[in-house]
Specification:
About 25% of the residues lie in helices and about 30% in strands. The chain is an alpha/beta fold. The strands form two sheets. A six-stranded mixed β-sheet has the order 4-3-2-5-6-7. Strand 5, helix 3 and strand 6 form a beta-alpha-beta unit. The structure holds 1-O-pyrophosphono-5-O-phosphono-alpha-D-ribofuranose, manganese (II) ion and magnesium ion (MG). Pathway: Purine metabolism; GMP biosynthesis via salvage pathway; GMP from guanine: step 1/1; Purine metabolism; IMP biosynthesis via salvage pathway; IMP from hypoxanthine: step 1/1. Its cofactor is Mg(2+).
């Protein structure tokens, strides 16, 4: 990408690699959830590209819903607290929920959200995460479906933003430090 590419240091995961991996995850989910009532819950906004791709590689009659949440972003605040900016549209009681996320970093967002969804009576709640930044984990979270384990770098693209930008990059890229160090 000519214009966005100027701010990129390196490409970490290409569009082709993402496509291949998402196909595999979709196939696995199709196998694991056959005959079950599945709701895919995408977490706005980062999950959008991954949600769009993943749902089309799942060969089951899933339904879709979205939430927009923000955690307090402070690990000293106990999990279970998540600020819901947009809630689910439909009841998840008895449903098999798969939460779809672009990235898991500290784990604070998901460690707060999963118990909440279970509390609402979901039959099961599992996570499908495209990018797993393990080194940064502060809260233990059980992730069933992982796209890629990635190093602790400043990444953007495929839904991940810096200051709300770069989400539309088709590859997962390392942002050039010039972008976030300039005054
Ligand atoms: C980012 C990302 C995850 C969350 C992960 O979302 O998309 O949802 O942070 O961080 P954690 O594991 O440390 O909790 P953000 O809150 O930036 O909103 P966005 O999806 O709109 O970018
Ligand atoms: Mn997000
Ligand atoms: Mg963000």
């Amino acid at each position: 990408m000519k214009n966005l590419g100027k701010d990129i240091k390196t490409v970490l995961i290409t569009k082709e690699q993402i496509e291949k991996r998402v196909e595999e995850l979709g196939r696995q989910i199709t196998k694991d959830y056959e005959g079950k009532d599945v709701v895919l819950v995408g977490i706005l906004k980062g999950a959008m590209p991954f949600l769009c791709d993943l749902m089309r590689s799942i060969d089951l009659p899933v339904t879709l819903d979205t939430m927009c949440v923000s955690s307090y972003g402070n690990s000293t605040v106990s999990s279970g607290h998540v600020n819901i900016k947009k809630d689910l549209d439909r009841d998840i009681r008895g449903k098999n929920v798969i939460v779809v996320e672009d990235i898991i970093d500290t784990g604070i967002t998901m460690s707060a959200l999963v118990p909440l969804l279970k509390q609402r009576g979901a039959a099961s709640v599992e996570l499908a995460i495209c990018l797993n930044k393990k080194e940064r984990r502060e809260k233990e979270v059980d992730v069933k479906y992982v796209g890629f384990d990635i190093p602790d770098e400043f990444i953007v693209g495929y839904g991940c933003d810096y200051a709300e930008k770069y989400r539309n990059l088709p590859d997962v890229c390392v942002l050039d430090s010039r972008v976030y160090t300039k005054a």
